[in-house]
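Archive maintenance. Older records in this collection stored only the sequence; we are now back-filling the structure field for every entry so that each record is complete. The fields below show one back-filled record exactly as it appears after the update. Entries are processed alphabetically, and ER to Golgi transport-related protein is next in the queue.

ARCHIVE ENTRY
Title: ER to Golgi transport-related protein
Organism field: Cryptococcus deuterogattii
Length field: 608
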Amino acid sequence: MTEGHKVRRPLGERMLSNEEDIYRDLKELGFHKDAAPSDNKDYVKLLERHLFEAKRQLERAKAKIERRDETIKRLSQTRQLPTDYKADDLERKLEDLTNQHSALKAKYQNQVGDLELQNMKLQEELDLLRSFHRSSQNELDSLRKRQTQTLMRIEELKESKERSDKKREELKLEVGKLKDQAKLSSKEIRALKEEVRQVKAANDSLEETIEACTVSYCALHRNTIRIEKYRVLEQSYLETKSELWRWKLKSEIDTLDLERKKMEAGNLRERLKAVEDERMVLKAVIKDIKDDQQALRNEITEFALTIGNGNLWDFVADFSEVTPTPQDVLSITLNHINFSSSYYTQQIETLNSANKSFTSKLSTTTSNLTICQSVLADLRREHSVLRTRHSALEKAHESCDGVREELLATEKECMFRGQRIEGLEEDLQRMEIKSRDDAEKVKRANELVIRAKSAEQALDEEIQHLHKAYIEASQYQELYNDLHEQHEMILAREAAAIEEAEWLAMHNAELVGHSNDVQKVSYVEGVRREMALVKQELATTRHLLNNANDKVQTLENEIAAYKSVDAGLDGLNLVTSTRTRVVRRQPEGGQLTVSKIGRSVSGPNGRH
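Back-filled structure field:
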């Protein structure tokens, strides 16, 4: 039995061994937080497996506690109480031990409840870790996509930069060509201006030559004829020239007078037409008046005859004061007719006088028109003579037409070249503006490339940091293997402890059924030793629970550290990398650490 107790492990240690495995596996996989998706899936599966193992061991512990309770009840029911003082003392001691066992059982059940609560918390933390794993996976995918897009954007910017450089070189070459063309054009313009000046000088020299030839011809003609004849000819020439100018002036004046006379004749024709229309109207009016006079005379005659044949007062209204006679009525009517006749006669005379004046004016205008036409014919003859002289002068100056055409062509070409130079200057300005825009674009592209390189450098630093963390985590592989071997050893000890418990149950049953007091006392001592071992198991369980609390706290700190790292990755704007250095608690030589005071479980520390 002593050898059995040597290999027997405390029940709390057997229950919390899987928690140590969980902590070890979490710590082993915690460094792989940002590893590949397959590693994260293995991490979640491992957590689920350890949780299932913890639940199964908790159920086994409950079943063992129930079996222990049944064994104690059966032993208390089957034992026989002695009647002597030693039996009473043993009974009292056994009752004390039973009470202590019940108290320890209650504490142990409380500890089991606490472990269940911790198990639930671990389950919640596992769910949080799963959600966090999914969010981390999504963020990792988004970061990879952003990195891919950034790399594509960098390649596009590089290509656009190369195209811009090529285009800028082409523009520089084109600008150089345009500058050369502008220089050549300016040289050609200067040459053309020089040619124009030369042509103008030649023209001036030709005019001077013509004048000199004229003077020399005059001098030659003067020297070849007599002086008196020359003077007569010169005088006649001057008189003819002055007469020509006088006739030109007169022709212009006569032309203006002719235009004015034509306008006056047109106005007179219109006025004559209006007067003729008015005369016709007046004739019609006079005719109507004569007809009215004749009708009125006929009416008066009829009226007089009517008065002679009958009484006039039968046809005249009865006036209270006036009593006219037929002679008065006739005289009034005749006076009215005479007045009307005199008025219309006066109007006819006025119209006749106006017609005579207009007729005289028309005859005068007609005579003036005849004179002007004769003068116009003379002017036309003189104009034809002057035109012939002008054509002769044009023939004399036909030699200058070629020079004039060349000058006009040169001026047009100069204008065309000036317009072309202006267009080239505008194109040059546009090219300079475009070159500045391309330089700005290249500058922005360089800035984007610099930012992308800095972001890439930050990502490289992050990858190096994760690689170092992975290397540090791989150092704990041997520790994991050792702990796995210890776990298998603990399982073997648990199986041996179960066999020992069954053997003790059978042995206790034999002792209870035995009537030897010495054997009963040895049994009580064995129970006392077992209770002491139970106390040790409780102390060990409390210590392991404190260690488990420390491990849970360490896991929470690691989760917070990973969250801070992910927050830094979220805050990364492809420029800088904000990394949080995760400080992890590592086991020192595989020894257990002391838990926090606030998380410890109270319990008896010594024997009773």
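Update note: The CA atoms of residues 188 and 417 lie 9 Å apart. The mean pLDDT is 67.
Entry marked complete.
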